[in-house]
C-alpha cells in the first residue's frame, strides 16, 4: 500500500481518502479483507493510533465492518459504495469548477473541453 501524505490534512483523513479511492476504483472489492490496524500502521509507517482512528471513522461511515475477532472487511452495502463514488466525483467536480471559475471560462467552452478531453482519454 502506497500513500503519499501531505501536511494539509490529518493523516487519518488521508488514510480514509486512500481507502475510498481504492473502493471507488474497484481495487478494494466488497467483502475484501483489509490489513489489521497494526499491519496498516507498519505498512504506511504511521502511528498505530492514527490507523485506529481511520478504521474507527471508516466503521462509523459504514465503509468497513469488523465481526468479533475477525479481520475488518470492506462493506457489502451497495448504497454506501455508491455514496463513496459519488462523494469522490462531487469533490473532483467542485475543485475543477472552482479552478475554472477563477479564470472566467464560459460554461459552454468548459463543457466542450471536458467532453473532448474525456473522450480522448478513454
TrEMBL record:
InterPro entries: Tscrpt_reg_HTH_GntR, WH-like_DNA-bd_sf, WH_DNA-bd_sf. Keywords: DNA-binding, Transcription, Transcription regulation. It comes from the Bacteria. Residues 9-77 form the HTH gntR-type domain. SMART domains: HTH_GNTR. This is GntR family transcriptional regulator.
